[in-house]
Structures are given as C-alpha cells and as structure tokens.
C-alpha cells in the first residue's frame, strides 16, 4: 500500500559518501580481476543458440563514479547482449513516462521466489506479473512503453537505454534472430498475461519488442555508467543529462534490490547489500546510491542464470570499496 510522507517541513535526505581515492579503486579493480580471472565455474547459457557460442574466458570489469571517472580492466569494452540487465532501465523509463505508482499498480514490485521465466509465478500470485525484473513483469513493462506502434515503442527503448549508457547502442541481429526463433515460452507468458488483462499492448508484438530490447549490444563499461546514472538520481555521469527523476531512480533501485537476481535475490542482498541486476548474456550491473555503478561481464552462469564471476567480483568490491548499504561502521 502506498503511504505518502506527511508535509512536515523537513527536507528528504539522500545517501551520502563517496568512492575511495582513485588509486585505491584502480588497485582493487586490478586485484579482483587477478583473483577471479582463472575461476572455472558455471556454464554459458545455451537455451538461446547464439549465446552458446560466447567464449567462457571473456571477463571484464568497470567501476564508474558519479563524477564520471571510470576504472576498467580486462574485456570491459567487449560487446555482448544486455539481456535481462535491460529490465530495471526500461522500468525506469516507464516509471518516468507514466509515474512510479501507476507502473507499480500495473506491474507489481514483489519478488516471486521462483525462476525468472516461471509460468507458475503468474498463476500462483493474484498480482500475476509480480515485478519488472522477471520475464512476465518485464514483458508487461515493455507493453507500457509510450508509442502507438511497435516501431515507436522500440525506438523509445533503444533511445532511452542509449541515453543511460551515454552512447548509441546497436541491435545484435544474430542474437535477436536466435532469440525470436526460440522464445515460445515468453510468448506463452505474454498470452497468459493478456488473458488476465495484464498486457497493455498486443502480446506477441510486446514480446518481440522485449526480445529486441534484450538483444541490444553493451559492454561492462556501459553497464557501469548506466548504474552510475541511477546512483546519481538519474543523471548520466558522462553526458550530465538527466535521464529520469531522482524519485524514479529511488523506486527502481528498491525493486532491483528485492528482485534483481531472481530467486537468489535474498542471498545477493545478504552478501552484497546493493541493488543489482543480472542477465543470461553474462552481465551484472550493481548500483551504490550516491557513489557509482559497477559493471561486470563474464558469461558462465550459475543455475539461476547469474554470472558466477560477476557475483564474486561484486561481493569483493562491495566489501573493499565500502559500498554495502547496510554497513554502519568499518568491519
């Protein structure tokens, strides 16, 4: 239930703090890269044929501060498909367009506790979509994007995610075509939602737009900058453009904190203490409000579809850089 704050004359406060000195950040990024570059755990996603071709050896890290300074190592500029890491950013664009409360009422924000592509999550919960970080909620979110046609909605998303990244993002046609040929489950989920009145555009067209959304090419540096944009209340640290409002950034980060790593989200918050979002393309974005964003790319995934190296790197840097939201004093 929405509970508005009373107008008591006191200003709202924001997260404070900053990243450590640049040389310390750089040293820690190099250290964590060396620590995990030879880790041989997890499996590259193969349910999308084009993803199965990606080398498991690829590994890139980038930290971006809200001041625009970046620290990168490894394959940080290697492009890969954004996949589900797109979800919080498209949700942000929708919240900006129609309002956070309207988006919540139509999509939901509660974690399902079930896999990202679960059909049972739709059937078992009265809210149906539950949250925008799982496929059902993400497709419903895409259906809410402004535009009267599929082309208009797609261009809105492509342009919006590019503004988050601070550069033009192109479609990976091979990934898109591979996913479009094998996304029967997502089409079924969209049809099911349509039957429950939880789709706001043609179900199959919305699924196709969502598939394109997931097929945009990004790199670890892009993810770090996109994360830093949410960390700074919606302002891109490179372009200085406001992409979404501070209120929207706050709501999106709350949703990512509770559901960004699917059924492992509780473990993630317990270990890392930060909002994050993973994708089967091997990317993970993590946001430290008021400080910056972290982007990691490493294709081998665990059983839940989250990058194995990405999780290890994020936990390490969260601790060493003092990012965990729940730490009240040095450990």
* Strand residue percentage: 5-15%
CATH architecture: 3-Layer(aba) Sandwich
Mean pLDDT: 91
Radius of gyration: 18 Å
Low-confidence stretches: none
How much helicity do the residues have? 40-55%
Domain count, please report it. 1
Number of discrete helical segments = 13
Q: For the record, what is the CATH homologous superfamily label?
A: DD-peptidase/beta-lactamase superfamily
Largest sheet: 5 strands, antiparallel
Give me the CATH fold name: Beta-lactamase
Order of helices and strands: HEEEHHHHHHHHEHHHEEEH
Q: What is the overall shape?
A: globular
Kindly report how far apart the N and C termini lie. Answer: 36 Å
Secondary-structure-derived class: alpha+beta
Q: How are strands sequenced across the largest beta sheet?
A: 2-1-7-6-5
Number of E-state strands: 7
CATH class type: Alpha Beta
Can I get a quick summary?
With 331 residues, the protein is α+β, with helices and mostly antiparallel strands. It has helices at 22-36, 87-98, 100-107, 120-124, 135-143, 150-165, 173-180, 184-195, 203-214, 220-231, 246-259, 265-271, 308-320, and strands spanning 60-65, 70-74, 80-81, 217-218, 276-278, 283-288, 292-297. It has a single domain (22-320), classed as 3-Layer(aba) Sandwich (Beta-lactamase), CATH 3.40.710.
């Amino acid at each position: 239930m929405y509970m508005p704050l009373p107008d008591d004359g006191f200003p709202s406060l924001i997260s404070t703090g900053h990243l450590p000195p640049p040389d310390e950040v750089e040293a820690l990024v190099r250290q964590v890269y060396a620590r995990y570059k030879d880790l041989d755990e997890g499996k590259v996603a193969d349910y999308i044929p084009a993803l199965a071709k990606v080398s498991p050896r690829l590994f890139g890290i980038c930290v971006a501060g809200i001041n625009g300074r970046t620290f990168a190592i490894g394959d940080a500029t290697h492009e890969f498909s954004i996949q589900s890491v797109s979800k919080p950013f498209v949700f942000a664009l929708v919240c900006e367009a129609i309002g956070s409360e309207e988006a919540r009422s139509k999509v939901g924000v509660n974690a399902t506790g079930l896999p990202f592509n679960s059909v049972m999550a739709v059937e078992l919960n009265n809210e149906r979509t539950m949250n925008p970080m799982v496929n059902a909620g993400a497709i419903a979110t895409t259906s809410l994007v402004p535009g009267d046609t599929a082309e208009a909605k797609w261009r809105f998303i492509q342009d919006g995610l590019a503004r988050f990244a601070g550069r033009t993002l192109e479609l990976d046609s091979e990934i898109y075509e591979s996913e479009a040929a094998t996304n029967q489950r997502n089409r079924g989920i969209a049809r099911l939602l349509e039957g429950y009145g939880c789709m706001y555009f043609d179900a199959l067209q919305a699924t196709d737009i969502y598939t394109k959304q997931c097929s945009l090419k990004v790199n670890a540096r892009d993810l770090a900058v996109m994360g830093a944009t949410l960390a700074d209340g919606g302002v891109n640290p490179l372009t200085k453009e406001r992409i979404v409002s501070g209120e929207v950034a706050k709501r999106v980060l709350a949703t990512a904190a509770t559901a960004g790593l699917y059924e492992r989200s509780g473990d993630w918050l317990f270990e890392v203490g930060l909002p994050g979002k993973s994708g089967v393309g091997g990317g993970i974005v993590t946001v430290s409000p008021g400080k910056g964003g972290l982007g990691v790319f490493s294709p081998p995934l665990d059983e839940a579809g989250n990058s194995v190296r990405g999780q290890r790197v994020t936990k390490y840097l969260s601790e060493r850089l003092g990012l965990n939201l729940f730490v009240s004093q040095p450990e």
